[in-house]
Design brief:
The structure is a homodimer.
Chain A: E1 9-11, H1 15-25, H2 31-41, E2 53-57, E3 62-64, E4 72-78, E5 81-86, E6 92-98, E7 117-120, E8 124-130, H3 131-140, H4 142-168, H5 171-189, E9 196-198, H6 203-210, H7 214-226, E10 230-233, E11 236-239, H8 242-249
Antiparallel strand pairs in A: 1-2, 2-8, 3-7, 4-8, 5-6, 5-7, 9-11, 10-11
Chain A binds a DNA duplex through residues 170-171, 202-204, 212-216, 218-219, 221-222, 233.
Chain lengths: 251, 251
DNA sequence: CGGTTAATTGATGTGGGTCAAAAGCAGTGG
DNA sequence: CCACTGCTTTTGACCCACATCAATTAACCG
């Protein structure tokens, strides 16, 4: 269990400077995202004295462990990560991919024991806030509470969608759904050129997210290519026939 | 689409009286539950002038329609209901069974358009509160906000569990999980005798909840009977070998 | 007593899992 | 520059859990 405790933790310097430098070190150069990460948490929030803590976690490393507790709220500043449930048989089920600006979990504001694990997909920068501060702000700041609520509602929506997809849809529909879902979220931050989306996943992650085996994911992706629907490789997804993908992936 | 608009809506009389009479008419006689239903919403909450509205909905009727909007929050007072997502191909995926005392959805406090449908499983009594009141109380009443947060956290937990089960578990594991999950929730209100639990579901509902066909659910339930694990029929679940069920249904 | 809805059971089909081999590719070190 | 290693993806052969289709029974009900 190599969780955050094992990672280097440093206190942030001046906010603007730290954000920008964090972005520069991010492998995806998502400078625009870092601002997003703080829109939610609002500028005057402070942990103890020195401001929020920043943490860098290497690609593939575990960030949170299911059942573990922390008195911090995590916000992803740069890079990608994902939340998952670890099953007793060693399998895992990914239930959310985290993009810069996302809270790791909005519920973590009110629960100290995490019911999920989280892992870095790329090298990531994380910002940590004291739960007590966050919770207090939830009572006193209406704007803040609304922001949390929006994130909560979006989460509930996505989650219900994923349940429906896992319960009722075929392999290709599941993957189409996942692609469409991620595309939407990426497009919300990014300006996209030529329908090419950065998607730093392995086929294994897709499999873990939609309840298939990596072998079968590979086969389905092959048919997507043959049929001229979408081309996924090396962390880039290129959409060739959007209407068709949408037809398959729509609930 | 026969939603609530088509149902008889009447204003509540004196609270205590109405609650109790509601319970008497409930086919499951869950008198103890109704108190639960109001623990969350707290006694001094009022809609407009006349107090909360009560609604009775017959078994099998739709209560909320996905995409529909309402400016009320629904609380289930008696009977069972369920939330589901309606798919474009006519299938549905149940993602939560509602027991007396449950909010239909805690997110509905902050979203006016529902992302799910809801239907009565038995004849049910529902209590409706104005969203504006609910939301306001969320800002001003810490106790209330904590209660909402608890319900939210529990929901997120259950939801993550269900996703894992749908993505990674076999038919019998899914059904075992569902049984254990419901048993836990029932036992939280009820005193249970002889491991017999009232579960007013058809096999169709089980199928819709765990992503199987009713035919296959029937087969799995048969093996549960043959193996002396559990006996489900006529809305009653009897557990014969709890350890075995738990072994199968555990995440 | 027919009509309806739920559950059971059997026969058959198939989507996706499992197993295994091979190929591509990046990193590493000599 | 090349062999070696580890990781990911691809491909093929085979299998099985669950779906589908269909017929039968059971329970309920006006």
């Amino acid at each position: 269990m190599e969780t955050l405790a094992h990672e280097k933790i440093r206190s942030a310097g001046p906010r603007e400077g730290t954000q920008l430098s964090a972005c520069v070190t991010c492998p995806h150069r998502e400078a625009g995202f870092c601002a997003e990460a703080f829109r939610l948490v609002s500028p005057e929030l402070r942990i103890n004295e020195g401001g929020p803590k920043f943490v860098t976690v290497a690609s593939g490393k575990q960030i949170l462990a299911q059942g573990g507790s922390s008195d911090h709220i995590f916000v992803l500043c740069s890079g990608w990560a994902f939340r998952y449930v670890q099953l007793s048989d060693g399998n895992r089920q990914i239930h959310k991919f985290l993009l810069p600006g996302d809270l790791f979990s909005s519920t973590s504001i009110f629960e100290d024991v995490a019911h999920f694990s989280a892992r870095a997909l790329t090298s990531v920068q994380i910002c940590m806030f004291a739960r007590s501060e966050f919770r207090e702000k939830c009572f006193t700041d209406r704007e803040f509470q609304s922001a949390i609520a929006r994130s909560w509602v979006a989460d509930a929506r996505d989650t219900a969608g994923l349940i429906a997809v896992l319960g009722r849809r075929s392999a290709e529909q599941r993957i189409a759904y996942l692609f469409l879902h991620l595309i939407q979220r990426i497009a919300a931050h990014h300006v996209i050129r030529e329908r090419r989306y950065p998607l730093p996943l392995r086929q294994q992650h897709i499999a873990d997210a939609v309840g298939l085996t990596p072998v079968h994911v590979s086969r389905v992706l092959s048919t997507f290519r043959e049929r001229g629907i979408a081309w996924f490789s090396d962390g880039v997804l290129e959409i060739l026939d959007f209407p068709e993908l949408e037809r398959m992936g729509l609930l």
